[in-house]
Design goal:
Order of helices and strands: HEEEEHEEEEEEE
CATH superfamily: Rieske [2Fe-2S] iron-sulphur domain
Number of domains: 1
CATH class: Mainly Beta
Radius of gyration: 19 Å
Number of strands: 11
Shape: globular
Strand content: 25-35%
Structural class: alpha+beta
CATH topology: Rieske Iron-sulfur Protein
Largest sheet: 5 strands, antiparallel
Amino acid sequence: MRRDFLKTASVLGAGLVVGPALAQPASERPKEGDVLVAIEGDSQVPLEPKDVPRDAVPLMAWPMDPAAKVVRSGSRLNKVLLVRLDPATLVGPTRERAADGVVAYSAICPHAGCEVSVWAAEQKTLECSCHYSHYDPRDGAAVIDGPTPRSLAALPLKLADGKLAVAKPFTARVGILPT
């Protein structure tokens, strides 16, 4: 009787350990092969380069596992901003990380963890509205000015059947660095 109780308890206990692990894919960082889906609207439709307006306000997106259809929206650190630029204006590694002129960066500012969502149209730069750090999306989201300590983490892209997909993980830690 005691043995049966212990078996049952161990199985139920294992369920408690495995259960949360099954919920983790929504919080996992973007993985190679994930497609990008718009945060606004029908979040199950993979984005194509034409869906990202050129030289305009960034489009916010989540990565999604295309096989399991799991949108990785369980962590705000997975929020990605997409900007479409003239490919001829992209500098150095940014050119290799882009897909048809679309570049992807973490939407989380490394200064204080605010969301980077402002597009300075005249300068074609990204801005964090909390403390006004400015980033150059053509050059790896390099810091132009402001209190931010580093550039935004880039998310290398590729095209998969015409859809925007993750080519490699973020190039750096997303968000604020621990002190």
